[in-house]
Design brief:
Two copies of one chain form a homodimer.
Chain A: H1 10-21, H2 27-34, H3 38-50, E1 54-61, E2 70-78, H4 86-92, E3 97-103, E4 108-115, H5 118-128, E5 135-149
Antiparallel strand pairs in A: 2-4, 2-5, 3-4
Helix pairs in contact in A: 2-3
Chain B binds a DNA duplex through helix 2 and helix 3.
Pfam families (chains A, B): AsnC_trans_reg, HTH_AsnC-type
Domain HTH asnC-type (chains A, B): 8-69
InterPro entries (chains A, B): AsnC-type_HTH_dom, Dimeric_a/b-barrel, Tscrpt_reg_AsnC-like, Tscrpt_reg_AsnC/Lrp_C, WH-like_DNA-bd_sf, WH_DNA-bd_sf
Chain lengths: 156, 156
DNA sequence: CATGAAATAATAATTTC
DNA sequence: GAAATTATTATTTCATG
C-alpha cells in the first residue's frame, strides 16, 4: 500500500469545507470568502483533485422524485476467502447497490440498496443476488425512515 | 404527508444524469451536450432545485486525506416509542455520524460513523453515545474495506 | 501567490414558436 | 408555456511578474 502524504494547510481545509457544502460554488466566490486571488484558489483546487483529495462532485438527487423510496441494508455471508473480493466486486456492479463494504467478523459484506419498493427489493434478491455463486445467506434490514444522510466529513 | 408530483421528462432526467456524474459541469456544457439553449437548461435546473429534485451539490473528499480511515455501522437499540425520533435526532447531531436510519424490527437505529481509527470509535461510544439517555444497547460492525461507495441513483 | 487581459460562461430581458 | 436569441455582466484561464 502506498503511503501518500497529503500535506493540507488551513487554506486547503477551508476550500474542502466550502466545496463539501456546495460543490457548485464558483472559484471567484471561494476566493472572495478566503480573501485570496481567484487564480491561487483555482491552482489549489486542481492540485487537490490531482492528489485525490477531492474525489468527485455529485449532485444529490431526491430518491422520491425517481421513485426509489425504499432503502435497505443487507448483510451477505459469503464463501470468499480472506483477501478475495470476487463477490464484493460482483455486488458492486449492481446499479441499485450503492455501497459494498467488506466487514469484519463472519466473512461477509454489508451492502446498501435502493429500490422503488419492497417488490423491487424482492426482484433484486430473486433475480440478481441469487445469481451470484458463493453467497451463503443474507439478512436484510429495512429502513423505515432516514433521519440523516449526509456524506460530509468532519473537517478539522 | 404531501403527495408531490415531480413530472420529470426525458430532458430533466438527462440533466440529473449529467449532474449526478459531475455536479460542476457548467450550464453551457450541459446545454451543448443536450443540444439546447443555455437559458432553457438554466431554467430547468432552477426548477429542479425548487421542486426539491436536485437537493444539493457535494464534493466527495477522500476520507484518508483527512485521517478518517475508519468506517463502522452501529445498530442502536433504543427506548424510543413508535413515531418518536428523539434519539434519532440526537444521533444526527453528532458530526462523525454520517447517516441515521430508523429501522424496522426491534426498535432501533442503524448509524454510519467515520472516525480516525478504533480509538476514535471508542471515544465516540464512551463520550458521546453513552450520554444519550434511552439507548439500551449497541452492536458495532467494523468495515475492513469499502469496495463501492457511491450515491448515484439509478436514473431510468 | 498576485496581476491583468483575452476567452468563455452566466444571467436577464426580449422575442419567437 | 417553453425555448431561442441577444446583450450585458461576471468568471475562468493563462501568461507573466
Amino acid at each position: 500500500m502506498d503511503k501518500v502524504e497529503y500535506n493540507l494547510d488551513q487554506v486547503d481545509l477551508q476550500i474542502l469545507r466550502i466545496m463539501q457544502q456546495n460543490a457548485r460554488t464558483n472559484n471567484a466566490d471561494v476566493a472572495r470568502e478566503l480573501g485570496m486571488a481567484p487564480s491561487a484558489i483555482l491552482e489549489r483546487v486542481k492540485k487537490l483533485e490531482q492528489k485525490n483529495v477531492l474525489l468527485e462532485y455529485n449532485a444529490r438527487v431526491n430518491p422520491e422524485a425517481l421513485d426509489q423510496k425504499m432503502l435497505s441494508f443487507i448483510f451477505i455471508k459469503s464463501h470468499d476467502n480472506i483477501g478475495d473480493q470476487r463477490i464484493g466486486l460482483l455486488l458492486a456492479e449492481i446499479p441499485e447497490v450503492l455501497e459494498v463494504h467488506d466487514i469484519a467478523g463472519d466473512d461477509g459484506y454489508l451492502i446498501k440498496v435502493r429500490t422503488s419498493d419492497s417488490g423491487g427489493l424482492v426482484d433484486l434478491m430473486r433475480n440478481t443476488l441469487s445469481q451470484i455463486d458463493g453467497i451463503v445467506s443474507t439478512r436484510t434490514t429495512i429502513v423505515l425512515e432516514t433521519v440523516k444522510e449526509d456524506h460530509k466529513l468532519v473537517i478539522p
